[in-house]
Amino acid sequence: MSTAPSAEEQFDEKASQQLEAVYLTPDVIEQRERVMALLAPRAGEHALDIGCGPGLTTAGLAHAVGSSGSVLGIDIAQPMLAMAARRCASLPQVRFDRCDVNALSAADERFDVALASQVYEYVDDIDAALTELARVIRPGGRAVLVDTDWESAVWASSDETRMRRVLETWNEHIPHPQLPRTLKRRLEAAGFRHVQVAVVPLLNLVYDPATYSVGMMTLIGNFAAGRNGLSAADIAAWREDARHMGDRGEYFFSLNRYVFTAERA
Ligand SMILES: C[S@@+](CC[C@H](N)C(=O)[O-])C[C@H]1O[C@@H](n2cnc3c(N)ncnc32)[C@H](O)[C@@H]1O
């Protein structure tokens, strides 16, 4: 078992709102569009949104499957479910359930498509969770999983040692910070085939609060302060440095999202 705080502990009201704000930046909107194109949900299909968070992906699925289809959004964090329910209130084809990815509240082979964006990296027993995912998708149905490897982060700083300490500490917020490296074989072992992997990079060349990286500094900083000898002052200096990099035209951030598409065998 990892020592990472549980998803319920991490996604309280405040953190859920902060994450929603980051996920509404143009960077993440574009990422969502690319992921949705890879899943290609069709009108009339039954879709599952695993770890639906603030419901942005759920709403996207609902528009794609239309009123003849259905979407079930599940999440473990109540504040996330509340936001998702508000966002999708006008979409009758959407339903939400509070449950864990290891015990999905759905019958066998219930869904045509499933999406899990930035979720399995939070799950201790991934292999059991992927077997549970395979259970609820019909044979021939599709799944798309998105996960990040923060070691793919390239983040310019005038204090490389501090930047490394912050990112190493951020790795501790989840039990599987390098999940993409093993996800293809895990999916195959769980009963999926034709697993393809695509990379969706995030790239920020200016310091702008309406970007993914600057938005994430709040969540990363809140997590890292007080851990591994990083003080609140260290985190403030880390943030200030990024701002100054921006003032000098030297801001640079890139990070890879790995998108796995798979078919239920
Ligand atoms: C980083 S957010 C991503 C939200 C959403 N998928 C998106 O891309 O907009 C991760 C979500 O996964 C949920 N989650 C993490 N572990 C979970 C588990 N074991 N069971 C259900 N939900 C979980 C969290 O509560 C959180 O809402």
Overview in brief:
With 265 residues, this protein is an alpha/beta fold. It has helices spanning 7-10, 13-23, 26-39, 56-65, 78-87, 126-136, 160-170, 180-189, 212-224, 232-247; strands at 46-50, 70-75, 94-98, 111-117, 137-148, 154-155, 192-204, 253-264. It has ten helices and eight strands.
The CATH superfamily of the domain at 7-150 and 175-202 and 256-264 is identified as: Vaccinia Virus protein VP39
Order of helices and strands: HHHEHEHEEHEEHHEHHE
Structural classification: alpha/beta
Q: Name the CATH architecture of the domain at 7-150 and 175-202 and 256-264.
A: 3-Layer(aba) Sandwich
CATH class of the domain at 7-150 and 175-202 and 256-264: Alpha Beta
Strand content: 15-25%
Low-confidence region ranges: none
Helix content: 40-55%
Radius of gyration: 18 Å
Structure description:
The protein has 265 residues and is α/β, with parallel strands linked by helices. It has a domain at 7-150 and 175-202 and 256-264: Vaccinia Virus protein VP39 (Rossmann fold, 3-Layer(aba) Sandwich). Helices cover 42% and strands 23% of the residues. It contains ten helices and eight strands. The chain has helices spanning 7-10, 13-23, 26-39, 56-65, 78-87, 126-136, 160-170, 180-189, 212-224, 232-247; strands at residues 46-50, 70-75, 94-98, 111-117, 137-148, 154-155, 192-204, 253-264. Strands 1, 2, 3, 4, 5, 6, 7 and 8 form an eight-stranded mixed sheet that branches. Helix 5 (78-87) links the parallel strand 2 and strand 3 (94-98). Helix 9 packs antiparallel against helix 10. The two termini are 30 Å apart. The mean pLDDT is 97. Bound molecules: S-adenosylmethionine. S-adenosylmethionine binds next to helix 4.
